[in-house]
């Protein structure tokens, strides 16, 4: 799967949430997330645990650069009933690879067409916005970048606030 992403610091949390709500035509879905990142040689690998105890193993690879960038990813989802299996896999990965870091956040999810707008409150980091334009197989990177830039402008996100890396990288550098 592929998407185009933009990530930025948020200076006015309430204002950007209001704009995102207007663009999406509805209230956000609140999603508490607890991500454990593993040490890997290429890309990033994390186990994301949700408040309902379901989980998703996420492998992704994207360049660390500002602005709209391509992200290639794979998901392995575990339902609430499979929670024991996700814990076993998490334990195995921790033993084999080690833990790189942990990111705990409260995410507000807004949908605008094929784009997920995330407004995140990240523990020990602050507030952020992330756009994920989920590309259809026939769509080009450039088309996804155009959609992302348009939404960035509509949300009032300035280029100076863009960040090029993942939250776990920001925590590493803190």
Write the layout of secondary structure elements.
Elements: E1 2-9, H1 13-24, E2 29-38, E3 44-50, E4 55-62, E5 69-78, H2 83-97, E6 99-112, E7 115-122, E8 126-134, H3 141-154, E9 162-163, H4 167-173
Antiparallel strand pairs: 1-5, 1-8, 1-9, 2-3, 2-6, 3-4, 4-5, 6-7, 7-8
Account of the 3D structure:
This protein has helices at 13-24, 83-97, 141-154, 167-173; strands at 2-9, 29-38, 44-50, 55-62, 69-78, 99-112, 115-122, 126-134, 162-163. The protein is α+β, with helices and mostly antiparallel strands and 174 residues long. The protein has one domain (2-173): Hypothetical Protein Pfu-838710-001 (Beta Barrel). An 8-stranded antiparallel beta barrel has the order 1-5-4-3-2-6-7-8, surrounded by 4 helices. It starts with a strand and ends with a helix. The mean pLDDT is 96.
Brief synopsis:
The protein has 4 helices and 9 strands, in the order E-H-E-E-E-E-H-E-E-E-H-E-H.
Main sheet summary: 8 strands, antiparallel, barrel
Q: What's the gyration radius in Å?
A: 16 Å
Oligomeric form: single chain
Low-confidence stretches: none
What is the CATH fold-level name?
A: Hypothetical Protein Pfu-838710-001
Q: What is the H level of CATH, i.e. the homologous superfamily?
A: Hypothetical Protein Pfu-838710-001
């Amino acid at each position: 799967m592929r998407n185009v992403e933009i990530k930025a610091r948020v200076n006015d949390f309430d204002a950007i949430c209001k704009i995102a709500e207007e663009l999406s035509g509805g209230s956000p879905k609140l999603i508490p997330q607890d991500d454990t990142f593993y040490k890997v040689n290429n890309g990033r690998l994390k186990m994301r645990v949700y408040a309902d105890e379901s989980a998703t193993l996420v492998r992704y690879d994207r360049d660390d650069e500002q602005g709209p960038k391509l992200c290639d990813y794979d998901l392995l989802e575990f339902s609430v009933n499979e929670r024991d299996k996700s814990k076993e896999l998490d334990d195995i990965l921790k033993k084999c690879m080690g833990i790189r870091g942990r990111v705990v956040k409260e995410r507000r999810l807004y949908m605008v067409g094929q784009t997920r707008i995330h407004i995140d409150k990240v523990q020990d980091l602050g507030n952020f916005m992330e756009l994920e334009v989920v590309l259809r197989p026939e769509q080009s990177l450039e088309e996804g970048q155009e959609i992302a830039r348009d939404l960035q402008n509509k949300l009032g996100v300035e280029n100076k606030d863009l960040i090029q890396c993942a939250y776990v990288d920001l925590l590493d550098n803190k």
